[in-house]
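Could someone model WQD with this protein?
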Amino acid sequence: MRVLLTGGTGYIGSHTAAALAARGHHIVLLDNFSNSERDVPARLQALTGQSFPLIEADIRDTETLTRALRDHEIDAVIHFAALKAVGESEADPLLYYEMNILGTIRLLQAMQAANVAHIVFSSSATVYGQPDSSPILEDFPTRVENIYGRTKLVMEDLIRDLARTNKLSGAANLRYFNPVGAHPSALIGETPRGVPNNLMPYLTQVATGERPHLNIFGNDYNTPDGTGVRDYIHVMDLAEAHALALEHIFANNVSITVNLGTGEGTSVLQLVRAFARATGREIKTLIAPRRPGDVASYYANPALAEKLFGWKAKLSVLDMCRDSWRWQAKRAGINDVQV
Ligand code: NAD
Ligand code: WQD
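Reply:
Sure, complex below.
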Protein backbone atom coordinates (compact mmCIF):
# COMPACT_ATOMS: atom_id res chain seq x y z
CA MET A 1 0.00 0.00 0.00
CA ARG A 2 1.04 3.60 -0.50
CA VAL A 3 0.29 5.34 2.79
CA LEU A 4 0.45 9.02 3.76
CA LEU A 5 1.19 9.69 7.44
CA THR A 6 0.10 13.12 8.67
CA GLY A 7 2.27 13.98 11.67
CA GLY A 8 4.55 11.27 10.32
CA THR A 9 7.74 12.69 11.84
CA GLY A 10 6.22 12.81 15.35
CA TYR A 11 6.61 10.27 18.13
CA ILE A 12 4.02 7.64 17.22
CA GLY A 13 4.06 8.52 13.50
CA SER A 14 7.79 7.84 13.10
CA HIS A 15 7.58 4.44 14.80
CA THR A 16 4.57 3.54 12.66
CA ALA A 17 6.46 4.60 9.53
CA ALA A 18 9.22 2.13 10.42
CA ALA A 19 6.71 -0.66 11.17
CA LEU A 20 4.84 -0.12 7.88
CA ALA A 21 8.05 0.04 5.86
CA ALA A 22 9.15 -3.26 7.41
CA ARG A 23 5.90 -4.80 6.14
CA GLY A 24 6.61 -3.64 2.59
CA HIS A 25 4.40 -0.56 2.43
CA HIS A 26 5.50 2.65 0.73
CA ILE A 27 5.34 5.59 3.15
CA VAL A 28 5.03 9.33 2.54
CA LEU A 29 5.46 11.61 5.57
CA LEU A 30 3.60 14.90 5.96
CA ASP A 31 4.39 17.26 8.82
CA ASN A 32 4.73 20.95 9.66
CA PHE A 33 7.48 20.18 12.23
CA SER A 34 5.61 22.09 14.94
CA ASN A 35 6.48 19.28 17.36
CA SER A 36 9.11 17.16 15.66
CA GLU A 37 12.68 17.24 14.40
CA ARG A 38 13.70 17.76 10.79
CA ASP A 39 16.15 14.90 10.67
CA VAL A 40 13.55 12.23 11.49
CA PRO A 41 13.24 11.10 7.81
CA ALA A 42 17.02 10.65 7.66
CA ARG A 43 17.00 8.69 10.91
CA LEU A 44 14.17 6.52 9.58
CA GLN A 45 16.23 5.87 6.47
CA ALA A 46 19.22 4.84 8.60
CA LEU A 47 16.93 2.51 10.53
CA THR A 48 15.15 0.85 7.64
CA GLY A 49 17.37 1.33 4.59
CA GLN A 50 14.37 2.85 2.80
CA SER A 51 13.74 6.45 1.84
CA PHE A 52 10.74 8.36 3.15
CA PRO A 53 9.47 11.18 0.94
CA LEU A 54 8.55 14.17 3.06
CA ILE A 55 5.98 16.89 2.43
CA GLU A 56 6.38 19.88 4.70
CA ALA A 57 2.82 21.17 5.04
CA ASP A 58 0.07 21.99 7.45
CA ILE A 59 -2.96 19.69 7.48
CA ARG A 60 -5.21 22.75 7.11
CA ASP A 61 -3.80 23.31 3.61
CA THR A 62 -6.31 21.27 1.58
CA GLU A 63 -4.76 22.16 -1.76
CA THR A 64 -1.30 20.91 -0.88
CA LEU A 65 -2.79 17.84 0.74
CA THR A 66 -4.90 17.00 -2.31
CA ARG A 67 -1.89 17.39 -4.57
CA ALA A 68 0.24 15.20 -2.29
CA LEU A 69 -2.39 12.46 -2.25
CA ARG A 70 -2.67 12.54 -6.05
CA ASP A 71 1.02 12.93 -6.89
CA HIS A 72 2.05 10.07 -4.61
CA GLU A 73 -0.92 7.90 -5.64
CA ILE A 74 -1.84 7.38 -2.01
CA ASP A 75 -4.13 4.45 -1.08
CA ALA A 76 -4.74 5.31 2.57
CA VAL A 77 -3.98 7.87 5.26
CA ILE A 78 -2.92 7.50 8.88
CA HIS A 79 -3.79 10.72 10.65
CA PHE A 80 -1.49 11.52 13.59
CA ALA A 81 -1.11 15.29 13.18
CA ALA A 82 -2.69 17.11 16.11
CA LEU A 83 -1.99 19.20 19.15
CA LYS A 84 -2.07 17.01 22.23
CA ALA A 85 -1.48 18.94 25.47
CA VAL A 86 -4.50 18.86 27.77
CA GLY A 87 -3.51 22.00 29.73
CA GLU A 88 -2.82 24.00 26.56
CA SER A 89 -6.20 22.95 25.16
CA GLU A 90 -7.96 24.41 28.19
CA ALA A 91 -5.91 27.61 27.88
CA ASP A 92 -6.61 28.05 24.16
CA PRO A 93 -9.71 26.10 23.04
CA LEU A 94 -9.97 27.78 19.62
CA LEU A 95 -6.41 26.77 18.77
CA TYR A 96 -7.35 23.14 19.44
CA TYR A 97 -10.63 23.35 17.52
CA GLU A 98 -8.76 24.83 14.59
CA MET A 99 -5.72 22.52 14.50
CA ASN A 100 -7.48 19.31 15.40
CA ILE A 101 -11.07 19.60 14.19
CA LEU A 102 -10.70 22.01 11.27
CA GLY A 103 -7.41 20.33 10.32
CA THR A 104 -9.18 16.96 10.17
CA ILE A 105 -12.03 18.38 8.09
CA ARG A 106 -9.50 19.81 5.64
CA LEU A 107 -7.72 16.48 5.43
CA LEU A 108 -11.00 14.62 4.84
CA GLN A 109 -11.90 17.11 2.09
CA ALA A 110 -8.54 16.51 0.42
CA MET A 111 -9.05 12.75 0.67
CA GLN A 112 -12.48 13.04 -0.93
CA ALA A 113 -11.10 15.21 -3.75
CA ALA A 114 -8.31 12.70 -4.39
CA ASN A 115 -10.52 9.61 -4.00
CA VAL A 116 -8.66 8.26 -1.00
CA ALA A 117 -11.23 6.40 1.09
CA HIS A 118 -9.35 4.67 3.94
CA ILE A 119 -8.16 6.34 7.13
CA VAL A 120 -6.66 5.28 10.44
CA PHE A 121 -7.07 7.92 13.14
CA SER A 122 -5.15 8.56 16.38
CA SER A 123 -7.79 8.77 19.06
CA SER A 124 -7.19 8.48 22.78
CA ALA A 125 -8.46 6.74 25.90
CA THR A 126 -9.03 10.27 27.16
CA VAL A 127 -12.47 10.02 25.47
CA TYR A 128 -13.58 7.72 28.35
CA GLY A 129 -12.94 10.46 30.94
CA GLN A 130 -13.49 9.04 34.41
CA PRO A 131 -14.76 5.51 33.68
CA ASP A 132 -17.11 3.70 36.08
CA SER A 133 -14.75 0.74 36.07
CA SER A 134 -11.76 -0.86 34.36
CA PRO A 135 -10.95 -2.72 32.17
CA ILE A 136 -12.59 -0.37 29.69
CA LEU A 137 -14.48 -1.72 26.70
CA GLU A 138 -15.08 0.28 23.52
CA ASP A 139 -18.81 0.60 24.18
CA PHE A 140 -18.29 2.31 27.55
CA PRO A 141 -19.79 5.80 27.62
CA THR A 142 -17.54 8.60 26.41
CA ARG A 143 -17.12 11.45 28.90
CA VAL A 144 -15.15 14.37 27.73
CA GLU A 145 -13.45 16.28 30.53
CA ASN A 146 -11.24 18.73 28.63
CA ILE A 147 -11.02 20.49 25.27
CA TYR A 148 -8.35 18.12 23.94
CA GLY A 149 -10.63 15.16 24.68
CA ARG A 150 -13.56 16.97 23.07
CA THR A 151 -11.56 17.43 19.83
CA LYS A 152 -10.73 13.70 19.78
CA LEU A 153 -14.37 12.77 20.17
CA VAL A 154 -15.51 15.20 17.46
CA MET A 155 -12.84 13.90 15.08
CA GLU A 156 -13.93 10.31 15.76
CA ASP A 157 -17.54 11.30 15.03
CA LEU A 158 -16.58 13.04 11.77
CA ILE A 159 -14.82 9.91 10.58
CA ARG A 160 -17.65 7.59 11.70
CA ASP A 161 -20.22 9.81 9.94
CA LEU A 162 -18.28 9.75 6.67
CA ALA A 163 -17.95 5.97 6.88
CA ARG A 164 -21.68 5.59 7.64
CA THR A 165 -22.58 7.72 4.63
CA ASN A 166 -20.12 5.80 2.41
CA LYS A 167 -17.81 8.75 1.85
CA LEU A 168 -15.11 6.61 3.40
CA SER A 169 -14.78 2.90 2.60
CA GLY A 170 -12.77 1.97 5.67
CA ALA A 171 -11.88 3.71 8.92
CA ALA A 172 -10.21 2.86 12.22
CA ASN A 173 -10.48 5.06 15.29
CA LEU A 174 -7.66 3.80 17.50
CA ARG A 175 -7.96 4.75 21.16
CA TYR A 176 -4.44 4.68 22.58
CA PHE A 177 -3.95 4.30 26.31
CA ASN A 178 -0.55 5.61 27.54
CA PRO A 179 2.13 5.29 24.85
CA VAL A 180 5.72 5.12 26.14
CA GLY A 181 9.07 3.62 25.06
CA ALA A 182 11.12 4.14 21.95
CA HIS A 183 12.62 2.14 19.10
CA PRO A 184 15.23 -0.22 20.63
CA SER A 185 17.84 1.26 18.26
CA ALA A 186 17.42 4.62 20.07
CA LEU A 187 17.33 6.27 16.63
CA ILE A 188 13.76 7.51 17.08
CA GLY A 189 11.75 8.34 20.20
CA GLU A 190 9.70 11.00 21.94
CA THR A 191 10.97 14.59 22.01
CA PRO A 192 8.77 16.64 24.32
CA ARG A 193 9.42 20.37 24.22
CA GLY A 194 10.19 22.06 27.54
CA VAL A 195 9.20 20.40 30.78
CA PRO A 196 7.49 17.07 30.03
CA ASN A 197 3.89 16.69 31.21
CA ASN A 198 3.87 12.92 30.99
CA LEU A 199 5.31 10.52 33.50
CA MET A 200 7.81 8.49 31.46
CA PRO A 201 9.63 11.39 29.75
CA TYR A 202 9.81 13.20 33.10
CA LEU A 203 11.14 10.10 34.83
CA THR A 204 13.84 9.52 32.21
CA GLN A 205 14.94 13.15 32.54
CA VAL A 206 15.31 12.65 36.29
CA ALA A 207 17.43 9.60 35.51
CA THR A 208 19.74 11.61 33.23
CA GLY A 209 20.10 14.31 35.90
CA GLU A 210 18.26 16.91 33.80
CA ARG A 211 15.64 17.21 36.58
CA PRO A 212 16.26 16.80 40.32
CA HIS A 213 13.34 14.56 41.26
CA LEU A 214 10.00 13.18 40.15
CA ASN A 215 6.87 14.61 41.72
CA ILE A 216 4.37 11.84 42.34
CA PHE A 217 1.01 13.50 41.91
CA GLY A 218 -0.92 12.05 44.84
CA ASN A 219 -0.47 8.87 46.92
CA ASP A 220 -3.94 8.83 48.44
CA TYR A 221 -5.96 7.53 45.50
CA ASN A 222 -8.15 4.48 45.91
CA THR A 223 -5.58 2.24 44.21
CA PRO A 224 -3.44 -0.60 45.64
CA ASP A 225 -0.52 1.71 46.57
CA GLY A 226 -2.37 5.05 46.48
CA THR A 227 -0.73 6.32 43.26
CA GLY A 228 -2.39 6.69 39.85
CA VAL A 229 -2.80 3.58 37.71
CA ARG A 230 -2.48 3.63 33.90
CA ASP A 231 -2.20 1.20 31.00
CA TYR A 232 1.25 1.94 29.53
CA ILE A 233 1.79 0.62 26.04
CA HIS A 234 5.10 0.31 24.19
CA VAL A 235 5.20 2.51 21.08
CA MET A 236 6.59 -0.46 19.09
CA ASP A 237 3.47 -2.48 19.89
CA LEU A 238 1.34 0.54 19.03
CA ALA A 239 3.11 0.95 15.68
CA GLU A 240 2.45 -2.70 14.84
CA ALA A 241 -1.23 -2.21 15.68
CA HIS A 242 -1.50 0.61 13.12
CA ALA A 243 -0.14 -1.63 10.38
CA LEU A 244 -2.55 -4.46 11.24
CA ALA A 245 -5.55 -2.13 11.63
CA LEU A 246 -4.81 -0.45 8.31
CA GLU A 247 -4.46 -3.76 6.47
CA HIS A 248 -7.73 -4.93 8.10
CA ILE A 249 -9.85 -1.92 7.10
CA PHE A 250 -8.32 -1.88 3.62
CA ALA A 251 -9.02 -5.55 2.95
CA ASN A 252 -12.50 -5.58 4.48
CA ASN A 253 -13.85 -2.04 3.93
CA VAL A 254 -15.04 -1.70 7.51
CA SER A 255 -15.24 1.07 10.09
CA ILE A 256 -13.98 0.20 13.57
CA THR A 257 -13.28 1.84 16.94
CA VAL A 258 -10.70 -0.04 18.97
CA ASN A 259 -8.76 0.26 22.25
CA LEU A 260 -4.99 -0.12 22.09
CA GLY A 261 -3.56 -0.99 25.48
CA THR A 262 -1.99 -3.97 27.22
CA GLY A 263 -4.93 -4.57 29.54
CA GLU A 264 -2.66 -4.19 32.57
CA GLY A 265 -2.71 -1.33 35.06
CA THR A 266 0.61 -0.05 36.45
CA SER A 267 0.86 2.50 39.26
CA VAL A 268 3.31 5.40 39.35
CA LEU A 269 5.29 3.67 42.13
CA GLN A 270 5.33 0.38 40.23
CA LEU A 271 6.66 2.17 37.15
CA VAL A 272 9.39 3.90 39.19
CA ARG A 273 10.45 0.51 40.64
CA ALA A 274 10.33 -1.17 37.23
CA PHE A 275 12.52 1.60 35.84
CA ALA A 276 15.15 1.00 38.53
CA ARG A 277 15.06 -2.75 37.83
CA ALA A 278 15.31 -2.34 34.06
CA THR A 279 18.03 0.32 34.05
CA GLY A 280 19.85 0.17 37.37
CA ARG A 281 18.98 3.85 37.94
CA GLU A 282 17.21 4.84 41.16
CA ILE A 283 14.77 7.73 40.80
CA LYS A 284 14.44 10.31 43.51
CA THR A 285 10.74 10.92 44.15
CA LEU A 286 8.71 13.36 46.21
CA ILE A 287 5.03 13.05 47.00
CA ALA A 288 3.20 16.09 45.61
CA PRO A 289 -0.49 17.07 45.62
CA ARG A 290 -2.85 15.44 43.16
CA ARG A 291 -2.76 16.96 39.66
CA PRO A 292 -6.12 18.58 38.85
CA GLY A 293 -8.14 16.58 36.34
CA ASP A 294 -6.30 13.28 36.95
CA VAL A 295 -8.25 10.05 37.12
CA ALA A 296 -7.25 7.51 39.82
CA SER A 297 -7.10 4.45 37.62
CA TYR A 298 -7.93 3.20 34.15
CA TYR A 299 -6.80 0.46 31.82
CA ALA A 300 -8.03 -1.16 28.64
CA ASN A 301 -9.77 -4.31 27.69
CA PRO A 302 -7.83 -4.80 24.44
CA ALA A 303 -9.65 -7.98 23.32
CA LEU A 304 -11.42 -6.39 20.34
CA ALA A 305 -8.13 -5.52 18.60
CA GLU A 306 -7.07 -9.16 18.86
CA LYS A 307 -10.43 -10.40 17.62
CA LEU A 308 -10.60 -7.99 14.65
CA PHE A 309 -7.02 -7.88 13.41
CA GLY A 310 -5.00 -10.28 15.54
CA TRP A 311 -3.10 -7.67 17.53
CA LYS A 312 -1.92 -8.09 21.09
CA ALA A 313 0.73 -6.09 22.94
CA LYS A 314 3.89 -8.16 23.39
CA LEU A 315 6.29 -5.87 25.23
CA SER A 316 6.45 -5.53 29.03
CA VAL A 317 6.75 -2.55 31.34
CA LEU A 318 10.45 -3.47 31.75
CA ASP A 319 10.90 -3.25 27.96
CA MET A 320 9.16 0.14 27.99
CA CYS A 321 11.50 1.43 30.74
CA ARG A 322 14.64 0.04 29.08
CA ASP A 323 13.86 1.55 25.66
CA SER A 324 12.70 4.91 27.05
CA TRP A 325 15.95 5.08 29.02
CA ARG A 326 18.18 4.14 26.06
CA TRP A 327 16.60 6.91 24.02
CA GLN A 328 16.77 9.61 26.68
CA ALA A 329 20.29 8.64 27.78
CA LYS A 330 21.54 8.86 24.22
CA ARG A 331 20.00 12.31 23.81
CA ALA A 332 21.61 13.43 27.05
CA GLY A 333 24.99 12.19 25.79
CA ILE A 334 25.26 9.38 28.34
CA ASN A 335 27.18 6.63 26.63
CA ASP A 336 27.64 3.99 29.32
CA VAL A 337 24.08 2.72 29.07
CA GLN A 338 24.16 -0.95 29.94
CA VAL A 339 20.68 -2.31 29.64
P1 NAD B 1 3.65 14.27 18.29
O1 NAD B 1 3.44 15.70 18.67
O2 NAD B 1 4.98 13.67 18.53
O3 NAD B 1 3.25 14.05 16.77
C1 NAD B 1 2.31 14.85 16.10
C2 NAD B 1 2.97 15.37 14.83
O4 NAD B 1 2.04 16.16 14.12
C3 NAD B 1 4.19 16.25 15.11
O5 NAD B 1 5.27 15.80 14.32
C4 NAD B 1 3.74 17.66 14.71
O6 NAD B 1 4.81 18.42 14.20
C5 NAD B 1 2.69 17.34 13.67
N1 NAD B 1 1.64 18.36 13.53
C6 NAD B 1 0.92 18.94 14.52
N2 NAD B 1 0.04 19.81 14.00
C7 NAD B 1 0.18 19.76 12.65
C8 NAD B 1 -0.45 20.41 11.58
N3 NAD B 1 -1.42 21.33 11.78
N4 NAD B 1 -0.06 20.11 10.32
C9 NAD B 1 0.92 19.21 10.09
N5 NAD B 1 1.56 18.57 11.08
C10 NAD B 1 1.20 18.83 12.35
O7 NAD B 1 2.52 13.45 19.05
P2 NAD B 1 2.33 11.87 19.18
O8 NAD B 1 2.52 11.54 20.62
O9 NAD B 1 3.08 11.14 18.15
O10 NAD B 1 0.77 11.79 18.90
C11 NAD B 1 0.26 11.44 17.63
C12 NAD B 1 -1.24 11.41 17.71
O11 NAD B 1 -1.64 10.48 18.73
C13 NAD B 1 -1.88 12.74 18.10
O12 NAD B 1 -3.07 12.87 17.35
C14 NAD B 1 -2.20 12.58 19.56
O13 NAD B 1 -3.30 13.37 19.96
C15 NAD B 1 -2.54 11.10 19.63
N6 NAD B 1 -2.36 10.51 20.97
C16 NAD B 1 -1.15 10.63 21.59
C17 NAD B 1 -0.98 10.08 22.86
C18 NAD B 1 0.32 10.23 23.60
O14 NAD B 1 0.32 10.12 24.84
N7 NAD B 1 1.45 10.45 22.92
C19 NAD B 1 -2.04 9.40 23.47
C20 NAD B 1 -3.24 9.28 22.80
C21 NAD B 1 -3.39 9.84 21.53
C1 WQD C 1 0.37 9.19 34.21
C2 WQD C 1 0.33 9.06 35.72
C3 WQD C 1 -0.09 11.13 36.86
C4 WQD C 1 3.68 13.05 35.68
C5 WQD C 1 -2.08 12.00 29.40
C6 WQD C 1 -3.23 12.69 28.71
C7 WQD C 1 -3.98 11.71 27.85
C8 WQD C 1 -3.04 10.98 26.87
C9 WQD C 1 -1.80 10.47 27.54
C10 WQD C 1 -3.12 11.94 24.67
C11 WQD C 1 -0.79 9.87 36.37
C12 WQD C 1 1.29 10.60 37.20
C13 WQD C 1 2.63 12.17 35.84
C14 WQD C 1 4.49 13.38 36.81
C15 WQD C 1 3.18 11.88 38.14
N1 WQD C 1 -2.58 11.83 25.82
N2 WQD C 1 2.38 11.58 37.05
N3 WQD C 1 4.21 12.77 38.00
O1 WQD C 1 -2.42 11.87 32.50
O2 WQD C 1 -2.69 9.38 32.07
O3 WQD C 1 -2.56 10.92 30.18
O4 WQD C 1 -1.21 11.47 28.37
O5 WQD C 1 -4.17 11.55 24.27
O6 WQD C 1 -4.95 12.44 27.18
O7 WQD C 1 -4.10 13.20 29.71
O8 WQD C 1 -0.53 10.50 31.50
O9 WQD C 1 1.89 10.36 31.84
O10 WQD C 1 0.72 12.53 32.38
O11 WQD C 1 0.37 10.57 33.85
O12 WQD C 1 2.95 11.37 39.25
O13 WQD C 1 5.42 14.20 36.72
O14 WQD C 1 1.55 9.60 36.25
O15 WQD C 1 -0.68 11.72 37.98
O16 WQD C 1 -1.25 9.12 37.47
P1 WQD C 1 -2.14 10.70 31.69
P2 WQD C 1 0.69 11.04 32.34
